[in-house]
Amino acid sequence: MTDLDAFARAASGGALTRLAAGPDALAELPALVRRLAGPGERVLLSDDVEKSAAGRNLLGWVAGLVGETRRVAVRASHAQVALDEVTVETTVAEVGTPGLLVSVGSGTITDLGKVVAARSGAPLLAVQTAASVNGYADPLSVLVIGGAKRTRPSAWPSALVIDDWVIDAAPARLNRSGVGDAIAIWSAPADWYLACRLGLDGPFDDAVVRPVLDAVEHLTDPDHDTARRALVDSLTVGGLVIGVADSTAPLSGSEHLISHVLDMTAMARGAEHDLHGAQVGAATVVCTALWQEVQESCRVLDLPWSRLSYPDDLADRVLSTWAALDPSGRLGRECLTAVERKVAAWDAADKSDCDADREALLETLFGYVGDPGRSATTLRHWGAAARFSELTPAVDRDQLAWTLSALPYMRDRLTLPDLLVMSGEWTPALIDRVLERAASAGGG
Ligand SMILES: [Zn+2]
After folding, report:
1. Which residues of the chain, if any, have pLDDT below 70?
2. What angle do helix axes 276-297 and 372-381 make, rounded to 10 degrees?
């Protein structure tokens, strides 16, 4: 079992001064407030959804432990709170410059708390209400900028409180979603390793992803306490290593791109989408199937990568892909700017090492690729969706195939589909084969 508190202080360079996790972690709140609060009022930031834990109203419980506070409740403009420009600016203005900001919520509210803390300079005491994503213990926030999901630097929480009672009282779908985000560790490091070896990111460091790989081992433990601890550990350690690497890349590859594109599609249509981790979990089954399928039936892993380049019509592809969601072209231009950074990095990179050392490179890389069947089984153990048709709302096969086709055209991070675009193999036929393979593993 990881000593989360010590790991948190080391990973954050002392910025995250206390990570209290376990039974009764909430009892530390009064001491944390005394230590962290500066002069001025205490602001309690949450959404407007009632929460309870151990039979008590959670916000009232926290407020009682924190002392006199002013409440700021963020209202959802769609089905759930989205951190678009308006929501962020409104909340920054409403919070002002308190002596202490206390956030009570899951991933989105904590991400908002980190942004507001960075802008106001107030210390953030974050009370985590679900094990739903890995983004609590890191200094980054996922925002919606120009309609596109973007990860931006914000601030470390000064303290993070993860109480077993509170986590167990979270809606089951939130913790199930956390399982999905946790198992991205079976997909993302392969993409990160690829990008690092190609000189587009890095350096790669096994020590960054290993603690998460170890933690997820116990996710299917029949003992609930052990399995819950594995879930909290894998997500918390995951957040911390993202902080250490100063990038989400070690834990965010193609499977996260799928989730981001589903979010963007839903937002563009004014429709709902499922939780981040729920989408990431189902996407992990697909992306592990993608690696297997490419290894078995594609040429790209054998081709000399130093001779590959993005196609000449790339800009047209990017713009026409996103025009389907935003005919105004704003989203397309936002994505093209990001994709152009990736193309410039690719053109500037020296790939000769990768070509000379291909066999060893692929052996290491496939050591990070998990099994689609195990991914699906782990999700099912927690009652989480392994198939996109089981998400809420369901994502049908056509939308999933379109989502996959769009992956290389969204942002500046290189993942396996980029290489397949360059080799001319990112085709509907390949996507069909990947979805069939995922389906026979219990996902897709
Ligand atoms: Zn995630």
Report:
1. 1-2, 77-80
2. 160
Indicate the CATH number for domain 4-170: 3.40.50.1970
Burial class (CB in 10 A: 0-12, 13-18, 19+), 226: middle
Report the separation in Å between the CA atom of 263 and the middle of ligand 1, taken as the mean of its atom positions: 13
Question: For residue 279, how far is its CA from the centre of ligand 1 (angstroms)?
Answer: 9
C-alpha of residue 303 to centroid of ligand 1, in Å: 31
Strand pairing category for 70-74 and 42-47 = parallel
Which residue, among 123, 119, 116, 112, has the nearest Cα to 42 in the 3D structure?
123
pLDDT at 79: 59
Rg of the chain over Cα atoms, rounded to whole angstroms, equals 21
Tokens 């939308």 belong to 399
219 CA to middle of ligand 1, Å?
A: 17
- CATH fold for domain 176-201+247-440: Dehydroquinate synthase-like, alpha domain (1.20.1090)
Q: What distance in angstroms lies between residue 418's CA and the mean position of ligand 1's atoms? A: 20
Indicate yes or no: pTM above 0.90: no
Q: What is the pLDDT of residue 76?
A: 72
- Distance in Å, CA 134 to ligand 1 centroid: 6
